[in-house]
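Quick one - first record:
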Amino acid sequence: MVISLQEFEARIERDYAKNRFLAYGTAILFLLIGNLILYEIIFINNFTYGMSLGLFLFSAAVAIYLINTGARGLAYIPVLTQIYKIGSYPEHSGSKRIIEQAACKAGLRRQSFQGFGPVIRYEKSGIFGSVSVVEFYFASSAVFAHVRVYNHPLEYMTYHARKKLVSELQREFDKISAQH
């Protein structure tokens, strides 16, 4: 099954908007609750100005952390997604086999549960379990890597790490496809 590029981009836009809303909403909620608790502590215990400022900065730092990690502390919310085009090969040209070889060389392993639709999923392992999932979508004219990061907050994969992983995949993809 092959989806069109427009359908693929529309699907990612919906995910992006939903994830951004949930991440920011959860972080703002944490900041408000943290500040309410903070003001209760200040008024009950008569904290000094410096101590109250420190507590406020701490709750703001927690909220910023939640925004940056996609608010995963509350629920399973993937970090905002990045889409990378890694090749312009239609599905029937053997690109699944090329992806298999490129992903193996880039240190990814295939997920046991693949789900439904035109997607092949690979994962990169970390200390606490799977850190990132790379989803390859087949559009009518190209193969796309859709990198989603989730699981343990200590293993948050930065934008640069994702970019490096995808560029390594693209290099392997081009190298293997040049041989065929």
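second record:
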Amino acid sequence: MKFIFHSPQYLYLLLLLAPMVGLSIYSFYIRRRKLHRYASNPEMRTTLMPERVGRKRLMRDLMLILSFAALVIVLARPQMPGNKQEGEDRRGIEAMICIDVSNSMLCPDLAPSRLNFAKRSVQRLLERMQSDKVGLIVFAGKAYIQLPITTDLKTAQEFLANISPSMLSAQGTAIGEAISLGIQSFSSREDIGKTIIVMTDGEDHEGDAIESATAAAKQGIRVQVVGIGTAEGGPIPVADGQYLKDEDGQVVTTHFNSDMCRSIAEAGQGSFVTSTNQSDLVEALYQELDKLPKANTGRLDHSGYLELFEVWAWLALVLLVAECFIAERRNRILMKYNLFSHE
């Protein structure tokens, strides 16, 4: 019987079990040491703290630790494959999404930053591209494939979440190189629509973007450009809450280059889309993608998964309730001398 977890990243919380167990043992040891300090006679120690009291304390700690483990498993959502249902053929397009990660994309003119605005836009776009094949490219002064083209959009979303300017040290905006890399990333199929989506503010481009977009169009690949930023622009944050400054000590203002973005889209026979409203931006872009010819991108099997987290949720609840009913009655002598209070 095979089990999987919908959100396995939460399982890392189970690493906290070891220090929790250690803390429980340490607490028990401290209590015993205090007891030995005030009562050297074994019979007196038994009177002050019977064995059952120690066992109850350990039992309560164990229940709390086990309930924590059960709640972690609930968060991870254990599942078991159910009965397979009849699948269906998926029809979609091939798209390589190129995301600008240059420092200018840190500008907060689109809160919280241009890059975060772009990433959230791509996230929402992927939610509507369930039948398409998608790949990711990141670029600044150089361009790199972050994720080869795939139908696994869940993996694409995970890779998308990890995108940041720290991925590339070379600064600049190598849009042309990103487009060229995108051209090489598609399959050799001729029956499916292919597009390169460039998410950028268009600033500090390397100069070969128009040529690369033209080359893509000649191969039947549309280049869509999504402009990220505002006409007013803004400063570029650096470390310690400061902003990037020029040689004269003046704060640098980065501006969204809409003319360059529009020119690249025209050369690539695609569309230029920009908006400060994320919903409008994604909708406009998706409408352009929907015009491209679609072909079979694979078969989608509707294999139902049985959710098992309810079992662990009930287990956690039972353990917590049981822990509450294990009363730890304090010995009156201990209370009188306050032996186990914190020092």
